[in-house]
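Standup notes
- HV: blocked on the assembly model, inputs below
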Amino acid sequence: MIRSYVAVRQILLALAALLALYPVWFMISTAFKDERDYASSPYGFPWPLDFGNFREAVHGGAFATWFTNSVVLTVGAVILSTAFAALAAFAIARMSFRGRDLFLSINVALMVVPPVVMLIPLFIFFTQIGFVSTYHGVILIYAGLTLPFSVYLLANFFRSIPHELIESALTDGASNLRVLLAIVLPLSAPALVTLVVVNALWVWNELLIALVFLPEDSLRTLMVGVTVFQNRFTLNVPVTMAGMLLATAPMIVLYLFGQRFFIRGLTAGAVKG
Amino acid sequence: MLRTRPWVPYLYVAPAIGLLGLVFAYPIYKVADFSTRLIRGATGPRVGTLNYRLIFEDPTFREAVKHSALLLLAVPILLVISILASVLLYDRMRGWRIYRSVLFLPYILAVPVVGIVASYIFQLNGVLNSILRGLRLDGLAQNWIGSERLALWTVMIVIVWREVGFGIVLFLARLLSLSEEQLEAARIDGAGWWNRLRYVILPELRGTIEFYVVVAAITVLAWIFAYVYTLTAGGPGTSSIVYELYIYRQGFVNSLPGMASAAAVLLLGVTTVLITILMWVRARAREQEGLGA
């Protein structure tokens, strides 16, 4: 009875793992095949490894431009979102004021409001004030969309910091802002890393906003770029897969090294609170 | 609590409130306003409920609603797979962490990349069909993306493939936080696998199940633009158009922002109902499980 359960479990899990990995394996293995190799054995092992697809994928420099744009937007949005969230979460966790609970509830609710609802008014407003096709415009949108989750996560974490640590700083005459910067934030390093990872992943992977607000070729993000790429190389599967691999590689590498931050962060909205 | 002058806390929350105002509050107010106007440029004359009547008369809108509703079928599928996988993993047998990492990996991948890779796997001469033909299952080899009958279901398969990782990790986290004793007691009593699941595990997961169902429903209704855009672009014809893609097309391809806004307002209404349920579920879960839950 027990033994058959263990056997069935192993089979089911192996099957699930195979299904989860196969598309990733398809992407990676195809990226290292030349076209003829791919045509003759689409699911064989890529040998000898062929790096020509990567050369062709980055040829012309567009790929590097998209990559840079994604990095700029991700870094900008994550910094802005984290900074604003830290200030707000500090007030929520450590000060008492009217509307505090309401503000936290609003943040929880906004976490699931779909961006497509705000898309049209934002686009029209940003057109009026000249924020379309600019880095700062899109950074503001991304920072705003990730802010509710950031506030929520940090407020929960700040609340768990022992009182005594803060009290002792206050008796030393530290100001509130000093308490936040010198005591609370350093103690919150794990939460901050989790937050940065989750928000960076979200911004890096976002398509709809980037598609609408950054239509010019020179400002395209990697995610918009890969859709252009797909159309351009549509018949050359290996080159397309090389492009897809380059676009996801940063996040896969981050995941391999800091898995627990991804798993903790992405389930944080659910398990806690 | 820190002692502060009464206005100081507001200074700290002001930047966040300003940004939320710009990205959420102002656009939500405006989208409601736009939905009652004939928009040209930044505003236009009031037309009452015309935009709403127009979308309801639009066959493409009805298709989009129908498809988004059909995609809700992904929610029970996601739920069942997530619970089963987490139950298989929760007793920490050797290698469970590796399985967790592997099953969570798809959720890390960017949706546009997933959509594009899937489009090559599912295309008529793609890998899936050649595998099926290789296994002498020619009857199962289908035009997954190019046929009106299957395109939407292919989108759903890809959504489930990527999103299920989140569910597995979520339920697993909840199961790992449970006390061993209860589950052990049931095992010693001779309760079979199914009875343990039914009478011990599922009741413990109830709060997480409620939360997950609401979140998954919101995801499927309103956060799947990138899947459809990269995989089928809503086609062939309108056979896989979904609600978000409809808003995007009316707003930015067909230049009908009034109709797009009306559709957005209705979507906001549906998500608001779901969010209210979510808040209620969370409040109740907190009450039941105490502060640390």
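- HV (later): unblocked. The CA atoms of residues 148 and 237 of chain B lie 8 Å apart. The mean pLDDT of chain B is 90.
- Next: hand off to the docking folks.
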